[in-house]
Design brief:
CATH superfamily: HybD-like
Radius of gyration: 18 Å
Number of helices: 4
Largest sheet: 3 strands, mixed
Helix content: 25-40%
Structural class: alpha+beta
Shape: globular
Order of helices and strands: EEHEEHEHH
CATH architecture: 3-Layer(aba) Sandwich
Strand content: 5-15%
Length: about 130
Amino acid sequence: MRKQTVCRELAAPVPAPRVCRPIQRADTGITPGSGVGNARAALNAETLGVPVIAVGVPTVVDAATLTCDVLAEAGKGELDPAALQGAGDGLIVTPKDIDTQVHDLAKVIGYGINLALHTGLTIGDVELFLS
């Protein structure tokens, strides 16, 4: 049986409309926290010795990007986030219902991984295991 690792991360800064929307995957691994300037040890084939499939969902937006998105939505023109560099440095914004969204996203991802790795398993089977 071929060994591999599946890991997930629920944070990466994106434009506001994409927060908690796309489920991203990669076969190159992941460096947790790198999207917010807080990189941790990489989880990849080089560091773990086996192929790594990474699954992630962007759950945060940095303040500069959010400001630009809001201004553009209000018709105040396009502003480059680089123009706000340094303003609100390190300020990350997340939706007020983030706990619920993360719970729901984790369930979707978990079900997807279980159904993909265990052929013949049904959603009912997964729900039974989790009850």
